[in-house]
Structures are given as C-alpha cells and as structure tokens.
Design a protein that fits this description.
635 residues, alpha/beta, Rossmann fold, GMP Synthetase, Chain A, domain 3, 2 domains, 20 helices, 31 strands, binds 5'-O-(acetylsulfamoyl)adenosine
C-alpha cells in the first residue's frame, strides 16, 4: 500500500486511520520517499496549540525549488512544466520545460542576489498571470527570500499596506497587464503605492504590454537585460524546515490584512501530497487551475503542489469571457486538459451563457473537475457535472483556506463517492471537529456546528507576520486546543462534511475573501459619511454580493443619493479594489446596535437577504426602532 497515492475507498479509510493513529510514522514515510532533503529531521512533529507553536520536520534542511525543479531534470527535463496560455488567443502558447524552468529560475535568482536580496528578506511580487510570476516566486524560494505575492487587481493603497506590513525591500512588477480587451497600467499603481513605502529600495519591471511608463532612476530597472546577463546556475539556499517560505495576506474581521506565514518543509510535503491525491495526477496529464497565483490556490495548486510532482501546470493570463464565453472550453480542447480546477463563481457565470459556447468544443480529455473558494450550490454542481464533465468526471469540492495552506476536506476522485454540495471527507492527517456555541465538541452524525481542526497538519500557517498574538486570538482562543476555521459546517449520516459558510465577518464575493471592516473603514473616509456597515447577501453569480448600510452626516443629508453611491464605490475601488464594490447601498438614520455598541450585522444580513421573519428578538437593542426604518427602506 502506498500512502502517497490513494486509489480506492477502502485504501482511503486505511490510510486515513493510519494517519490519525500514528501521524509521525505516516508523514515520515511520505517525506522520506517523495522528496530530497539536505539533512534529515530530528522530530516529525512538535506542537502546542496553547502558544501556539507548531514545528514539522524540525532539524531538516532542504530547498523547495530543488524538489520542484532540479530533481525532475534527469527524468523530465524536456517535459513541459509551465504551459502559458496568453490573454490574446492569437498570441502563441509557451511551453516552458523543466530544463528551461531551471535556467530561468536560476537566472532570476541571480538577479535578485545582485539586487542585494538575501535569505529572509521580503520581496513583494505584483505581477499579472505571466510565466515571470511563477518564476519570480520560485526564484525567491531558491535564495531563501520570503515572497509576498499581492494579487495584481489590488489598489495602490492595498498594495502599500501589504508592502509596509512586511517591510519589503524589492517589488517585482510589470509595465502593465492584459485583461480581456483592456490593459491595466500596473506600473502606475506601483508608483502610487511606492510614495508611501520607504522600505522599498528597488523595483524590477517585466515588459509585458510595451506601454511607455515612468522609470525612476536608481530605483526602477527593466528585468530582461538583467536576466540576459545572469548566470543560469544558482546554488539553492539551504533552508531549515521551519524557515518562512512566503507571506500571503488575507483579510480579517478587523481593519488590517493578516500576513499569513507559511514555512518550508511541511508546506511542501502537504501541497505535494494533496495535489497528487485530489487530482489523481498521472505522468502525462495536463492540469489547469484557473485561480490567480495571487491567491493561496495559485501558490499551492498552480506552482508548488504540481511542480513538486513533476506535473504540467497551465497558467492562463486572461478572463473567462475573452474573446467570448467559450474561452475556457477552447483552452481545454486545445491543450487536452485532464484536470480542471475552478471556482463556483466562475461556474455560475459560465452557466448563465448559451450552451453553444460549451458544445462547440471537445472536452473529452477531461477526467476530473475541481471546485474551490466557496460553497458550490446544487444547481452549479449539476451544470458542471452534466455539461462539462458529461457525467463522467468526478467533481472534487475542495474545502480549505489561505491559513490551511492545502486542501483539507475533499473527495478523492474514484475513491470517495461524491455528493452535490458536500466537500465530503477529510484528507489523511486532517481531524475536523464540530463545536457548539459553548465550545463543546458535537459528536455523532447528522449534526451541525462550527468547524475546527483538533490536530496540526504540515501546511498550516505558523503565525501572522509580526503579530503572533493576533494569530493566537483569531484561530486558537475561541475553542481551546483547537484551530477555529471561521466556517460553519454540517456532518451528514455517513460523516460527510458540507461547509455552510463563514460565521464571522468575512464575506466571500466571487471567491474572494473580503473583510467587512476594511471596506467600512474606506467608506467612512468619505466626508459626508458618519458610519457604515457591510453585509453579504446571496447573489446568483458572485455567490455573495455586498450590501452597505450608510449613515450620512448632517452635511451630507441633502446630497444626491446616486452621486453618493458612485463616490462610495470610487473610494472602495481606490482603497481596496473593484472586487469590493457594493451592489446595493441603503442610506439610513441609524444601525441596530447592542448596548455595548456592537453593530448587529446578523440583523442587517437578514434584512439584506429579505429574511424579515427570523430577525429574532430586537427589543434588547440600544435602538430597536431603527430596525423598522431599515426594513421599510430596504433595496
Ligand atoms: C482556498 C481558499 C477560505 C474560505 C473558507 C470558506 C470558503 C473555500 C470552500 C469554501 C465551501 C468550499 N482560501 N471556502 N473553499 N466554502 N466549500 N469548497 O478559498 O482563504 O481565500 O478562503 O473560503 O469560507 O474559510 S481563502
């Protein structure tokens, strides 16, 4: 029996039991057989959730890029590692082999060294979905620099906050990016951000769209000439198992984003293991995940997990509807994609369009379909199953988080029978529990509660950059000795999990995690606005959309409401990005509050979702009368 590649349900249960009964032996066998180490570990796991402190493979030394690239060269040197599909369908596809990837990562790593970047330095990567994004990420890992990839749809303010929080020395960006028929001036956004980031010494610029941009002397450099002069060999930096590999920001329920810190060995082992099993990857498969590398899904399942398995991983620069709504299906046909991994929000948007876009293309290469980012509703699940998988491809509904680093609950294709809207069973090594509101574990089946994980797994985030206390408070205090996910879930009669959604103040819009607090903070900067509260409400395509309740200042009361709505969304776009724009904005004289002054978002959420009958007892509020006013004026 191979622990590493599970092929049927019986085997899943065997492997699962072993992973729980003896985690050390389980993970040690996988680590030994499937990776190259410069030095072996002393202990597999040391942990204490009360601190919290988690150490996997302590004492081991390695470099993740040796595992993702170097060791494949002998057997897979001329195999395609990255398959780049450009935004413009007329621009040719690029096949970057493992040999070429090796050279390009090493050259880039040497350029980083020339810029003075050393082990432990933070490098911010703000790039579109082009090969340089994956290569820059790996180049950082090659020399032990900590990468912080910021999604290139974020605004200058959001970028500056992230750069400053982790004190990045260097920013890697591009002149611009293509997005469907549009171009975006990335460098201008970076220039704006860098007015507020004294820590940044240099900027490396990839030429992508060929626009004329401002280059600040001594600070900004074009990347290509530097690469052309760089050596193609760069010795990998030998890292300790628990050295940070990267920081990735995710929003929380208070204002500032959380810089989740992932470390080297455990992250590598777990992303490789889950990639292999969740996608049942075989040597000649062509795997495509449509996420952006700016999110955890891209880090773990476009870059590290696939490359650690010597896979061919597709990088798509564009959007689902350019030049038309058939683009995804066209790419699947063109590259004979075998595993396709996308988000429910994309599935719902695609399902709204005419089926002729799907039917025009031969999708028979597909073997497995994946979904990630939010709960997938029944309708979208069946559409995906029928029209894309032709009822022959298992759908893996994979539940996980930026914080978990890798897939936690998901069917294993061909082993776990799927059930629409259910993420089904925990991966080996994962011990989910459901908790009631008093912090007691709810045992048995056909129950629901708050989802916690009671035992460490190798790819869990170890801390929040510069804020270990926030890490402890956010994830380890609500339920003693447990990691709290922030999600609610139910467990059915056979032990399958269904994730029902966030129970805190994070809203998932089109698969993007948006904290309500930073959006409210941005809105409240408007001179005419006194206070605001944001909630999510169900939306056909985006899963959730944002509903804002806004209290105007005296001076704002005679302003035109439609103009104000535009200004509010403008502020949000500037401070967070267009993904956080509000779909509905209701002006109100007050917000329902508890006596201690906390906004009762639960009530606002129900009103925004037209659930007026289940508001609960509002009489204990500080200002119960305002509830009726809000209901009367609901949009
Ligand atoms: C990978 C990722 C995490 C949050 C998580 C959930 C929600 C993700 C699913 C899901 C139901 C799923 N990381 N979520 N996957 N909910 N079913 N299969 O998305 O940090 O950006 O978001 O996303 O609420 O806590 S994330």
């Amino acid at each position: 029996m191979s622990n590493y590649h599970i092929k049927h349900l019986e085997e899943y249960y065997q492997v699962y039991r072993k992973s729980i009964q003896n985690p050390d032996i389980f993970w040690e066998e996988i680590a030994e057989e499937h990776f190259v180490w410069r030095k072996r570990w002393n202990t597999v796991l040391e942990w204490d959730f009360s601190k919290p402190e988690i150490k996997w493979f302590k004492g081991a030394q390695l470099n993740i890029t040796e595992n993702c690239i170097d060791r494949h060269l002998r057997t897979r040197g001329s195999k395609t590692a990255l398959l780049f599909e450009p935004n413009n369908p007329d621009e040719s596809t690029q096949h970057i082999t493992y040999n070429q990837l090796y050279k390009r990562v090493n050259q880039f790593a040497n350029v980083l060294k020339d810029q003075g970047i050393k082990k432990g330095d933070r490098v911010c990567i703000y790039l579109p979905m082009i090969p340089e994004l994956a290569i820059a990420t790996l180049a950082c890992a090659r020399i032990g620099a900590i990468h912080s990839v910021v999604f290139a749809g974020f605004s200058a303010t959001a970028l500056a906050t992230r750069i400053n929080d982790s004190d990045c020395k260097l920013v890697i960006t591009a002149d611009g990016s293509y997005r469907g028929a549009k171009t975006i001036d990335l460098k201008t956004i970076v220039d704006d951000a860098l007015k507020h980031t004294p820590c940044v010494k240099n900027v490396l610029v990839v030429k992508r769209i060929g626009s004329s941009i401002n280059m600040q002397t001594n600070r900004d450099k074009w990347l290509q000439p530097l690469l052309d002069n760089a050596l193609t060999e760069c010795e990998p930096e030998i890292m300790n198992a628990e050295d940070p590999l990267f920081i990735l920001y995710t929003s929380g329920s208070t204002g500032t984003p959380k810089g989740m810190v992932h470390t080297t060995a455990g992250y590598m082992v777990y992303t490789a293991f889950t990639f292999k099993n969740a996608f049942q990857y075989q040597e000649n498969d062509v795997y495509w995940c449509t996420a952006d590398i700016g999110w955890i899904t891209g880090h773990s399942y476009i870059v590290y997990g696939p490359l650690a398995n010597g896979a061919t991983t597709v990088l798509y620069e564009g959007v689902p509807n350019y030049p038309d709504w058939g683009r995804f299906w066209k790419i699947i046909e063109k590259h004979k994609i075998t595993q396709f991994y996308t988000a429910p929000t994309a599935i719902r948007a695609l399902a709204k369009e005419n089926l002729k876009h799907v039917e025009k293309h031969d999708l028979s290469s597909l073997k497995i379909l994946g979904s990630v980012g939010e709960p997938i509703n029944e309708e979208a699940w069946h559409w995906y199953d029928t029209n894309i998988g032709k009822k022959k491809c298992p759908i893996i509904d994979t539940w996980w988080q930026t914080e978990t680093g890798g897939i936690m609950i998901s069917p294993i294709p061909y082993a776990t029978p799927t059930k629409p809207t259910y993420a089904t069973l925990p991966f080996p090594g994962i011990q989910p529990v459901l908790m009631d509101e008093n912090g007691n574990e709810i045992k048995g089946n056909q129950v629901d509660g708050r989802l916690c994980i009671k035992f460490p797994w190798p790819s869990m985030a170890r801390t929040i950059w510069n804020n270990h206390q926030r890490y402890r408070e956010t994830y380890f205090t609500a339920y003693k000795n447990n990691y709290f996910t922030g999600d609610g879930a139910l467990r059915d009669e056979v032990g399958y999990y269904r994730i029902t959604g966030r129970v805190d103040d994070v809203i998932i819009v089109s698969g993007h995690n948006l904290g309500t607090a930073p959006i409210e903070d941005a809105i409240n900067l408007h001179p005419a606005i006194a206070e605001s509260a944001i909630v999510g409400f169900p939306h056909d395509i985006k899963g959730n959309a944002l509903y804002g309740y806004v209290i105007l200042k005296e001076t704002g009361t005679n302003r035109n409401h439609d103009n104000l709505r535009k200004e509010i969304n403008q502020i949000i776009t500037e401070h967070i990005g267009p993904i956080a724009k509000l779909d509905k904005i209701q002006f109100t004289s007050g917000l329902p509050k508890t006596r201690s002054g906390k906004i009762m978002r639960r009530i606002l959420r129900k009103i925004a979702s037209s659930e007026f009958d289940t508001l609960g007892d509002t009489s204990t509020l500080l200002n119960p009368e305002v509830v009726q006013e809000i209901i009367t004026n609901v949009l």
